[in-house]
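Hi, here's the filled form for the chain we discussed.

Project: internal
Contact: R.S.
Residues: 111
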Amino acid sequence: MNDCVYVFESFIDAMSHANLYKIKYGNKDAWKLHNRLALGGTADTALMELLKRKPNIRNICLCLDNDSAGRAASATIRQKLMSMGYMNVYERFSREKDYNEELMMVRKTEI
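And the returned structure, exactly as it came back:
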């Protein structure tokens, strides 16, 4: 596994992001290039546990929902990670409410 993890609120968003990677790169295995983690909400408990177990992870991309709760949680988690010494922490919001909605929009345009 590499040193990057993409973090989502839900499992379906993580899987949707993986599918978007396959579509974007035209390669059915492109999704395997990155780690993905679903928090099961906006609490960072699962992420903190992952970082304890996988100290090689140095790049964290927060892909929480593009709504007020997701944006607020993302900012809070980013600040916490930066204070813990993680310098490569990014926020990447979907163009839609979340990555599942973005995948549905992409699929709709393919039809």
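Let me know if anything looks off before we file it.
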